[in-house]
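In the laboratory, one determines a bound structure by crystallizing the protein with its ligand and collecting diffraction data. In a computational setting the workflow is compressed into a single prediction: the sequence and the ligand go in, and a structural description comes out. We illustrate the idea with 5CA.
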Amino acid sequence: MRLSKALIPTLKETPSEAQIASHRLMLRAGLIRQMASGIYAWLPAGLRVLTKIADIVREEQDRIGAQEVLMPTIQSADLWRESGRYEAYGKEMLRITDRHDRELLYGPTNEEMITAIVRDNIKSYRDLPQMPYHIQWKFRDEVRPRFGVLRGREFLMKDGYSFDLDFDGAFRTYKSIMLAYMRTFQRIGITAIPMRADTGAIGGDLSHEFHILAPTGESGVFFDAAFETGDALGATDPDAFYEQMTTTYAATDEKHDESAWAQIPPERKREGRGIEVGQIFYFGTKYSKAMNFAVTGADGQKFYPEMGSYGIGVSRLVGAIIEARHDEAGIIWPQAIAPWRAAILNLRQGDATTDTLCEQLYQALGADALYDDREERAGAKFAEADLMGLPWQLIVGPKGAAKGMVELKHRATGERFELPADEALAKVRA
Ligand code: 5CA
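The predicted complex, in structure-token form:
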């Protein structure tokens, strides 16, 4: 994309409404704009990040046999009356009345809807297990929406649901989801730690939250150093993996156990703050029973499938990643989800030699590059490139361009290399 034509409205000033780095940087780098309290429009650069995260989430869900569906954002109140959650959900639910006075709501989550879909279409144990998921906007009328996309009212969630024959099957599914989540976060380029959690409004017996470490996180977290190094990620079999994850100490302040903590050698103890980017739940037959979803078993007897639900805050992740990865100058995107792989900085727009080399680099990188072709001073281009945080900057000035040389800067480390254009391109592509 050419920056001169792009809808990337960067800001020099710090917006006064933003209290934390990710919110400030998302506004300053032109990723989002607030449309109403806790409701954001995603502009091109922000949408590219959101889409890349969603794509990785999707690939890792598909890999474990989950099937993508797309349920609507608007749901019928009657569905929620079946589970008994319509009244219980309270003011966080945005309730809507249509022209025929029918009660609707903007979905905060989809346990009821997916249970109804599977109930109305699956009759036999032979058709289980099922693991549908979707990536869809949710609405929760949070009392205090804050920190930009970290606690919005409208937000993008990957929510998955599982239907198994029995407890063993459901527990195995739960473990395979945990493994898929850890792979997802690893591919995105961040460290996430699973921690035992309470089940809240979703209900059930077993739950884990996944936290990204960041100083501004809402929860205090205590964990074993094994999670830092990735050693805890060794196992590939879901049972062994779950065993490893749940026997290595990690807890939020709510669940922290001082006596277990005391057993950890001091050099392995880590304390910090975490942002919850995902949560998974096993709740047995809570919804299948309430909504009368029974299937016929091998013995001809009816039984209620065992269920779980599994969420990832896709839009929250964008903010959380920035909280974990930024510096004074701006965002430092992990390569896998950066809106573009490289920025091309033309330091002498209008000079035939620099223009030609920049155009060549831009052609070569195609959709992976953001070309700063504006008539701006070099200083302003450097500052904006650092603010936007693309992994690489290809800096092209007239002197170098005359010799076919560019300066390549690595945003994360600040390293700079003087290279012939083709070698710089090869490094960017590697
Ligand atoms: N139905 C279950 C799992 S599918 C569920 O709704 N779980 S949840 O309530 O924990 O939400 C899943 C994830 O959505 C959270 O871990 C969090 O990352 C994200 N999330 C929840 N509320 C918000 C919010 N107000 N703004 C941004 N992200 C949110």
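The radius of gyration is 24 Å. Keep in mind that any predicted model is a hypothesis to be tested, not a measurement.
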